[in-house]
Design brief:
The chain contains eight helices and six strands; from the N terminus they run βαααααβαβαβαββ. It is an alpha/beta fold. The radius of gyration is 17 Å and the shape is globular.
Length: about 210
């Protein structure tokens, strides 16, 4: 199989940043709902890759039983960014991720990011960390990952069999399956994989190229 492009999730696939975002959600709710931490940790673990705004809507419904307004979502987004940004800039790269992006660049294989985070945020982080030149394009929320993947494939005229999608969450796996794109799971603990048993999983992306 000739690979013409590689697609990556960001959090948990390029940078080790999932815990940073989980703790930011807990910080947002800890004063008004002290019992939220345990629920949020479990939900974040099981719902990786979903837009933060969808998660926030879910938490508000679950804890306070009402819908959020667009103004509330805007304020949440600003506060969430304030809590996360500096820590995200310091988050370590997942083992093998940086080397893989560099290797793909050398081989003229474009690398794309498809993420549940806003695209402009990932553009900022990639630029600040000096890896923007290694990434062809970034697709982020709003929009579900299956739609983002489909848009990427159409805009860059790629066929499913010509790409690989790397992700660390079941959301990533399902988006790849919907688009018939080969998927490889990134997991740190083989005993706690979120993926079906027949899924190919690795700890280091770079061994594949």
């Amino acid at each position: 199989m000739t690979i013409k492009a590689a697609i990556f999730d960001w959090d948990g696939t390029i940078t080790d940043s999932n815990l940073i975002k989980t703790e930011a959600f807990i910080e947002l709710f800890k004063d008004s709902c002290p019992e939220a931490a345990e629920y949020i940790r479990a939900y974040q673990q099981n719902k990786g890759g979903i837009s933060r705004f969808e998660k926030y809507r879910h938490y508000i419904r679950h804890f306070f039983h009402h819908e959020v307004s667009e103004n509330e979502l805007s304020r949440f987004g600003q506060r969430y960014t304030e809590l996360c940004r500096n820590k995200l800039l310091q988050a370590p790269f997942i083992s093998g991720a940086l080397e893989t992006l560099q290797d793909l660049k050398q081989k003229n294989i474009p690398a794309f990011i498809v993420t549940g985070s806003p695209a402009d945020e990932i553009h900022f982080l990639a630029n600040a960390r000096g890896i923007s030149s290694l990434i062809k394009d970034i697709y982020g929320s709003p929009g579900s990952k299956d739609i983002l993947l489909a848009t990427l494939m159409q805009e860059h005229k790629l066929l499913p069999q010509e790409v690989l999608f790397f992700g660390d969450a079941l959301t990533d796996y399902n988006a790849a399956k919907i688009n018939k794109i080969p998927f490889i799971g990134i997991i740190q603990d083989p005993q706690h994989s979120p993926f079906p048993p027949d899924t190919m999983v690795v700890k280091r992306i770079s061994i594949l190229f």
